[in-house]
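note to self: the first set is below, dont mix up w the second
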Amino acid sequence: MIQDSREDFFLQLLADYVLLNELLGGNNTEQFLHKIGIKYGLRLEDRYRSASDCSKNLTVEQFSNLISRFAQSIGGEYVLQAADEEKVVIYCYRCPFGHVVLKTPVLCAALTAMLGGIASRNFPYSKVSREHSIAKKAANCQIVIYLQETETALAAAGNVYADRVVNYVLTPSEIELMNNEVLAGNNIYHKYVASFESLKSKHQFLETEYNQLRNEIFSDLGLGVLTVNEAGKITYMNKEAQELLPVGENWDVGSTKIFQSLLHETLTKHTHFKQHQVQIPFPAEVRVYSVNTAPLFHEEGGLSGAVCVFQDETKIRALENELLQMEKFSLVAELAAGIAHEIRNPITTLRGFLQILSKEFRHETKGAEYCAMMIEEIDRANSILKEFLLLTKPTAPKVREVDLHVVLEEIFLLIESKSLLENVEISKCYAKKLPLVKVDPAHMKQVFLNLATNAIQAMPDGGRLTISTSEEKGKAVVRFSDTGFGMEESQLKKIFDPFFSTKEQGTGLGLTVSYRLIEAHNGKLYAESTPGRGSVFTLELPVFRNEE
């Protein structure tokens, strides 16, 4: 030994272990020595990384530096002839093993495996070729370490190294081979097999524990998690996914066609979908899902499948629409507050003078006709201002226990004559017993009258208006269903927006005010419509419960 260092001691120990394996291993000695060399190379690399504080893949310069330092520590004469991105070339003029290498040439296998193993962990390709060898009585050794898979590297003789776990341990088949050839009659093989079976059992136990833990984590997240293999077949679904997408182990063409399409694109094109919004049709409703997908790869880099994480955002979207509606109301309220009071006073004055002026004209003259027309338009403008003020600051509701059937009968008397003129039949379908609600009856009367009037106006050629009541999920429900011309989807989305109207003379504030009044009573007002078949406006109010 040239110097009494840790590397020298370990090298001597390695040489003794190699000689022992040569005596025991027979023809398979070199195969075992490759594993020993790769494992020692891993320890050598770890010490180098600790000394140089390096956490990323080694560069060619760092790899060459590691080889040089190792060569200096074990003795011998090594020269680094070339080092670039494709290969590193080393010349050895004096072997550190001395004459021992002539008797035991497999020692070189351990040394080259060390270098090949280090290269495989840091570069895309690793192949070690010994062009010349002192062990084969050549004047020197030339070791070429190829770092890229070039044509020259493929043509060169040598061993290719890959960064795999089996490179560091003896596999069961290798243990059995050594037992059959070397350790016949020895119990070592059976001990190895028993140990391997024990590890296999522990692995299965840990895998079961992992699956249980995974399910618990995914359940707490409240997200649906689904995985498929490379053929698109479902391999895993957590509990949430099974509830959101009841497909079992096979795809259902009806409700999951969109999911299949997204996962197919993820598998074929490696596309990542992030927060992708999809609408899934179900028998009772259409749900809105937010979907994320990503491809899955196994250790060797090939595609193994895809994962899909999704959640139901139907309620979130409904809340967002409500917030948007409230924001629109807020903007209109600000506008109304700014102009209503400023306009109302001069309009009142103007109306008074017009009334006086109209008396100066005889009846049935143009002057009297113009004055009457202007007073009518001023009254119309004043009614719009009143609705403006309702949006700005609705009058405080005077709530009490109310039977909605009584309120409906009151508005029936008001709309009956108008319905006869428009050739509209009114049909009542009341629940036998509707629970009381705590509301302002005047406000409810205004809302009901507005909804009934709109329904009649939607049937200029006649039709049927059905007013029905029921109790559903603790709510008192009133529906106004007409057989008019209906509305398109684009119109339906704006129906409660301020100033939106489908009528020529409409102000676009009636439904907005109605929506606001129902909202003030903690209720809901929404519409459904089919073009050419009619519309249904549904009003829901919480049922009054007497706590005493």
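second set (the one i keep forgetting abt)
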Amino acid sequence: MVLLRPEDLKKILSLMRLTLKENEDYLNSLNVFPVPDGDTGTNMYSTVRSGLQAVNSARNSSLQEILSVFVRETVMGARGNSGVILAQYLAGVRDILEKSDYLSFSTVSDIFDHATEEAINAIGDPVEGTILTVMEDVRDAVKDRTFDSIKELSEFIVEVANKSLKRTPDLLPILKEAGVVDAGGQGFCLVLEAIDAYLTGKKTKILEAEVDKTADVWHEKSFYRFCINVTMNPPVLDVKEKLKGLGDSLVVGREKELVKVHIHSNNPPLVLERCKKMGNIIRVQINDMDKEQRMFLGEDIDGLSVIAYGEGEGIKDILKSMGVSVVLADVKSPSIGEIVEAVEKNGKKAIILPNDHNIIPAAKKAKQLSNIECEVIETRSVPEGLAALLSFREDGDLDEVINDMKNAIKNIICSEIKWAVRDVKIGGITIKKGNAICVKNKKLISVSGDPINCLLESISKLIEEHSLITVYYGKVLEKQAFENLLNQIKKKFPSVEVQLYFGGMANSYYMFSLE
């Protein structure tokens, strides 16, 4: 038996993240299946990173707590085919490891068998020659085999996985035609090698190779244009059945009450509508694969772009899904230089959305300094920026698009619910440290010991004749059950449409808009 210490697990997860980050570009360069859009490395890295960030920000003392937090956030943050499959595989590993602080060699076969089964069950239509093939080969190799040490086990698994990876082009013709191995399978091998490196003291690999993308297969267009990732918590079990027929590359992963959906489709609104009927949507990410493929292959893309600020993992995903080319996502405000760099690196005429009144001056100065033509729309909040994006057209005239986007935010009301950082008195009202508060235009709208009450009261005071309420909830609230909040808003405002999304903001409970 081997004792699994919490500190060892954290270091292994950290090394997995580092290995995927160092090989992100290489993995992207292999990505030809199912769509050559060059994002497999980014998706797998982002998936593991989201889980590790949750572990590092939480107070976890036991092995079981670390596993629980890591897997939950990995499933919620999973992206792309390989990201969702990897997340489900890791959830399967967790199911076995969380039963004990010790790894018994007699349970090794159970771990790989259950993890592989969880990954396979998530797929709508498994294909040979992918990451699943490598997982299956590792599972089959450890069956009925005994190991005398953890070193022997880890080295054997890595050897088997790499042999399996080499045969993926023989199983999937598109890989052979493109001259590559499967990108997801390579990423899975790197994850196993990171574990082996920690256990044996070896160095992790950094892979580099030029991939020839002149073959026709790299330039073939997918029938489906959009990659859609949805995290939700539906009470139904037949999610996969309800989404079949809306696209391909369907992957449905589960983590307790959560469901992660990945699908390629030409109709994102229909996919989201079908998901809404099954339960509450927590996170959404929509990527234009046609655009990603052209960028990946270095093909010129005419038209306009958007550079926007947006703090929070959920906010970043929403901005990207609405056409933002570069999201300056950080708790701190971006500098003038960072905005200029983003505009010039993107290389296209740009519209800058500051999405914060404190960033507007820097955005205006960046416009003056940039060598690329750009304009600034003075959006003062993320919801305001999102409303403007509804009128963005990549192929439009810059002046006309700017005018349309400005008109789109004329009647929107936006605010947020934050917590008081100290005791203070505003307008004769005493506010205690930690109270939830809503301030708009330097005027106190609401204060309460309960964030939900503060939100409801603030909306009630500001809603006027608006017919749509959109709420984004912050990082500190992401583990709460939001059916309750959704029902409370709908009960208080029965004639108004309500939308609720995960924002992941670090410094506020909620942001909301009224339209």
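remember for set 2: The two ends are 60 Å apart (CA to CA).
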